Amino acid sequence: MFISDGHADRMWVRVLAENLHRAGLCAFHDEWEIGAGDVSFHLLDVEIRGSTAGILLVSRRRRPGCG
User: Is 56 helix (H, G, I), strand (E, B) or coil?
Assistant: First the structure.
């Protein structure tokens, strides 16, 4: 399962991903999967294409300085 989120919701998404993992679901959370030096665009593409489900989180919260 691929989780797409905005950085302003990072803490909430981390809890969601942990709960999904505890429930036995395989969730891709970039904080866990993408390391320093990784080409994130390629990793995200591979994960999105390989996922059978996805969660898109949309909120009114914005990262400071982003209008």
Answer: strand
